[in-house]
Amino acid sequence: FGRRRGCLLYCFIEVLIQILEHVPNFYVLMIGRILGGISTSLLFCSFESWMISSHKSKGLSDESLTLLLSYMSALNGFAAILAGVGTRF
To answer: What is the pTM of this model?
Structure first.
């Protein structure tokens, strides 16, 4: 249940950051940047740990988890390359 809560917290913080970006006050913008660092940490740990926990609770094999994580990593790299190429136009 804590992993799910971490994912929901990530979404809430991201919405809050978007709201804070429209406030023309330096200190409020700095709070937004600090929250951005927190949300980035949540992004890179909460969703993946939730997926691993769910995978293990369903009794699926470790080999399928390894395959899933490798596909996820490859797709993430491919999406980053496409985003970089897309910004050139």
So the answer is: 0.68
| Of 11, 12, 42, 17, residue with least CA distance to 30 | 17
Q: What are the tokens at 81?
A: 């390359």
Gap between the Cα atoms of 4 and 84, Å rounded: 31
Give, for 82, the enclosing helix (H) or strand (E).
Answer: helix 62-86
45: left (phi over 0), alpha (psi -120 to 50) or beta: alpha
Cα 35 to its chain centre, rounded Å, is 13
3-class state of residue 4 by DSSP: helix
Token pair 């809560």 is found at 5
pLDDT surpasses 60 at 34: yes
Residue 36: its pLDDT value, please? 95
Per-residue CA distances from 57 to 51, 60, 73 (Å): 10, 8, 22
